[in-house]
Amino acid sequence: MSEEYRSDHTDEQLSDRVPRRSPRILATLAVILAGTAILGCVLPIAIWPGEAKLTAPLFCAVPYTEPIVVSDTFHDSEGQSTNYSMYCVGDRGQYTEVGFARPWFALWALHTALVIVLVIMVRAWAWWRPAQATEPARLAESTEL
């Protein structure tokens, strides 16, 4: 473009760069992580404490093959508190304590992965879905005989 046609009052920046999507992706990821963390607090504690048993293949090794989730309720001057813990028990009653944190983090990772896959599938469906016609297709004109 020659200098005589360029306006001095405009600040033109011509670029072929594609706008970055990383802030949107990072915001979506932050929402997913926060939502699954809240889900991870509600689901294995209030709704289904036995969900921690799903992580047994990760934490229970031979001879401790059977997972058991135990809730211990304590009463003190501040009120009542409940502690959940997973134990891996063997055939003869021997056990190892896995605790609560490791199964919870594993379940959080599982919930996060499931939600991310679901979000990707929904966005892919919206992207691949054919565009809706704004006006109905017209029939070809014909002549009557």
Task: Give a written overview of the molecule.
There is one protein chain. This protein has 145 residues and is α+β, with helices and mostly antiparallel strands. 40% of the residues lie in helices and 19% in strands. The longest helix has 28 residues, at 101-128.
Strand elements, count: 3
Mean pLDDT reading? 79
Helicity range: 40-55%
Based on secondary structure, the structural category is alpha+beta
Q: In order across it, which strands form the biggest sheet?
A: 1-2-3
The fraction of residues assigned to DSSP E strands is 15-25%
Topology of helices and strands:
Blueprint: H1 22-47, H2 56-59, E1 66-76, E2 79-89, E3 95-99, H3 101-128
Antiparallel strand pairs: 1-2, 2-3
Helix pairs in contact: 1-3
Keywords:
145 residues, alpha+beta
Brief account:
It is built from 3 helices and 3 strands.
